């Protein structure tokens, strides 16, 4: 973004064309680049259909400019230190990197490019691609992250509502807050810490989930196993089922109802409670094993001694 102290009127934009290393500056083509500004619409358009792929276009604009960026083939996009109302990026196979962005809405749609979010991305985020998605921190009201073929990995999500899905890739989430839905068909799901309502499902993969605090939890794996970890003092109603259900000895269950039918075990019990209105944890492993054990918040951080 344009330095607001150097240009307090916010009436300047800078466009630079940079050649790849090894190309002579005198041979760096820029005649295919157009820069237009519409005073009535207050809109600047920077575009080219002829610049080669080893040429980079740097655009510096004032804060609050909405962004609508598109590239073809393997053209990449990088947005850093920007504030605006709306940010939209469309690529074919190029990588998109967002670094410290604040907006009302952030949309990144790519046919086959990677999406990387560094720093903190503030706003309502919609990311769709067929490649890998890596996210440091998202904060906003709604999050929709979809990859058809790639892996999805996040460190922190703070949102009222989040939907994260991958058709065949693994999903690895660090700390998630709010109402979260996680889906994958063939991949595994690992959640470091969940605080809020959680619904996670996979057809063929395993689930590994730590519930730090909860409102309601629904876990499902048709063919895989489920590792469910909770604080030892957590109060909840449990409905657990699987080909085999194992409960670690340190877990204190009350009012236990257990049933085994045709090789499938079901347990209905209360954790650290005799009943009443406790949040419900449902976990179903269709053909796999379900394991319930305790874990501390410190353990969930996976800290390593140096």
Automatic annotation (TrEMBL):
It comes from Callorhinchus milii (Ghost shark). PANTHER family: PROTEIN FAM185A, PTHR34094. This is DUF4097 domain-containing protein. Residues 57-173 form the DUF4097 domain. InterPro entries: Toastrack_DUF4097. It holds the Pfam family DUF4097.
């Amino acid at each position: 973004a344009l330095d607001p102290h150097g240009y307090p009127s916010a009436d300047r934009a800078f466009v630079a064309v940079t050649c790849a290393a090894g190309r002579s500056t005198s041979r760096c083509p820029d005649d295919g680049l157009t820069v237009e500004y519409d005073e009535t619409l207050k809109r600047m358009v920077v575009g080219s259909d002829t610049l080669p792929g080893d040429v980079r276009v740097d655009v510096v604009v004032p804060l609050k400019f909405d962004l609508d960026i598109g590239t073809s083939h393997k053209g990449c996009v990088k947005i850093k230190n920007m504030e605006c109302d709306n940010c939209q990026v469309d690529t074919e196979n190029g990588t998109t990197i967002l670094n410290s962005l604040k907006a009302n809405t952030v949309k990144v749609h790519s046919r086959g490019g990677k999406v990387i979010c560094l720093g903190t991305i503030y706003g309502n985020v919609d990311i769709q691609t067929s490649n890998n998605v890596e996210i440091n921190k998202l904060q906003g009201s709604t999050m929709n992250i979809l990859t058809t073929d790639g892996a999805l990995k996040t460190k922190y999500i703070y949102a009222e509502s989040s939907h994260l899905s991958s058709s065949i890739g693994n999903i690895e989430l660090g700390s998630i807050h709010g109402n979260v839905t996680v889906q994958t068909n063939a991949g595994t799901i690992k959640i470091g810490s969940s605080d809020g309502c959680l619904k996670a499902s996979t057809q063929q993969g395993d689930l590994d989930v730590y519930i730090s605090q909860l409102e309601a939890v629904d876990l499902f794996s048709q063919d895989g196993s489920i590792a469910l970890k909770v604080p030892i003092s957590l109060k909840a109603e449990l409905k657990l089922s699987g080909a085999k259900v194992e409960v670690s000895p340190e877990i204190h269950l009350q009012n236990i109802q257990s049933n085994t039918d045709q090789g499938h075990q079901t347990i209905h019990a209360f954790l650290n409670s005799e009943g009443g209105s406790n949040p419900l944890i449902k976990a179903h492993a269709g053909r796999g094993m379900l394991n319930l054990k305790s874990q501390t918040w410190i353990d969930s951080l996976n800290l390593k001694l140096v």
